[in-house]
Amino acid sequence: MSLSLHEYVSMIESAGNKAIVLNTDECCIGSWAVFAYSPKGLTEILRESGPLLLKRGWPAGPVDFIKKLAAEWLDQDNAMLPVVRRAFGDG
Fold first, then answer.
1. What is the dihedral of CA 82, 83, 86, 91, to 10 degrees?
2. Four-CA torsion 34, 72, 63, 23, nearest 10 degrees
3. Fewer Cβ atoms within 10 A, N terminus or C terminus of the chain?
């Protein structure tokens, strides 16, 4: 089954989540990307991670956090990876 971008975003939003669609100029991977997230859940994770975000110069708001994440490639030893993994279900 293949979904259009509009159908995919609608599916995410109908489940009570949010979606951010970023174009090739906004992503370090060289293509567009869709980030799906729970506004409440991501806000809580970012709040709990506030000291690390501040120390590393990362934004604490969900949209700005996702845009920075999409724009920067993180190495495996990057201090932000635990926050990213927790935010997107891998940790």
1. 0
2. -40
3. N
Rounded to whole angstroms, the maximal C-alpha distance in the chain is 44
b/e map 5-36, b = 16+ CB within 10 Å: eeeebeebeeeebbebebeeeebeeeeebebb
Distance CA 75, CA 65 (A): 17
| CA 62 vs CA 5, 10, 49, 77: distances in Å | 21, 19, 12, 23
Kindly state the DSSP code that residue 57 receives in the 8-state scheme: T
Indicate the pTM of the whole model: 0.88
> What pairs with residue 22 in β-bridges?
33
How far is it, in rounded angstroms, from Cα 15 to Cα 2?
19
